[in-house]
Amino acid sequence: MTMEPNSSSSHSQGLQESPETLNGGVIQPSESPQLQPPTEEIHLNSGESWEIETENLTLDDHQSSASGSVLVLAAMALMILGLGIDNITLGYVSAVATLAISLRLLWAGWGKVWTTLIPPSWRNLIIACFGILGSLIGLVIFSNANTENEVSNITINWDAIGALGDLGGALGQILIAILAVYVAWRQYIISRDLTIQQNRITQQQTIDAYFQGVSDLALGEQGLLEDWPQERVIAEGRTSAIIKSVDAEGKAKILRFLSQAKLITPLQRDRHLGRPMLDGNGNYAEDRDYGVRVIDLGAMLAGADLSKTDLRRTDLSDANLVKANLQGCDLVRANLARSILYEANLSYTNLRAIRLFYGSAETASPRSKTLIPNFNTGEHTGAVVENADFTGVENLSEENHYYCCAWCGSKSRKTIPGGCEGIPNKLDR
User: Fold this and answer.
1) CB neighbours (10 Å) of residue 30?
2) pTM over 0.85
3) 302 exposed, middle or buried (CB, 10 Å; 0-12, 13-18, 19+)?
4) Which of 71, 132, 225, 365 has an alpha carbon 20 to 30 Å from 356's alpha carbon atom?
């Protein structure tokens, strides 16, 4: 059985062994195109050889360090032996050998210790301090004050150099103290960051456990929403407990979960069983007039810090947000109808398409404890915005602008962007 030669190899041999013609001209072998080996193979081979050399170098470093340590111990043993047998020559030679080998090992490892222990910003400072000390000693030595009778030969003033040495020692102690403070500060920063990271992990685990617990309470075996009175009480108790124990971002995560799961939205109920009803489109039907919420937030968010969080599309209607900090929040399409925003901080929030009331802005009014809301005209369906801070709010629609100016009071009217000129102050009236 014979095998045909490879066509590419025969072609390359033809290019190397015989001249070719091109348009009647002869290409000499020196002018023939040279075939380069594949670039990938070159990089691969070079990469393999580099890795092998690197591994060999690392192995050689370890071997040289081990052999150096053995030599130091051996030289010290010879020095002790010389002392024991009163051989001065052996003692001197072994002592010099020990010093030389130790200096070599110290020089080899000093670079790694220098780059590992000393921060880059401190290296130049340390070297500069030594440079200043050396330059001062040099200036004292070479100054005219160190010469006697203007003779060209230099006479060293050891008292001045000793004073400079004392100064250098004091500066060194100060530098060591500063370095110790810096190291302690860096350890504090690292410890603080680790603590913050650990707290975030623990908080997220707590929130996940809360999500699972509320889901188990709200969902039955058939996937239907189970929210009997006792289950609602337990769910509200869990929510109230965890809301007080997490930070602003944790509160926002919980509110987004509850809102998207329709657990804080008033749902239409079956009058006999109290079960939530469907709207015919695969969702639970809302009932703003007589609906019952699975979890009623109530006053859980009063005075809460929710600054700079994402609360888009959350249903915070009827929530008590008295003196809550909502500064810098993203409240796009959030529902704050009938919420209590008395003295709340809404500065620099994004209020695009936010709902503060139902009906029209002219007929809408804030909620009332005794009067029944009318969701058609908007009476008593609006949020309580008295004395709220609207400084720098963004994307406030004309209707919401009118409502806020009408019902926020004279103090808050000054903070609304664009002013409230021509809009009556219904709250004072």
Assistant:
1) 6
2) no
3) middle
4) 225
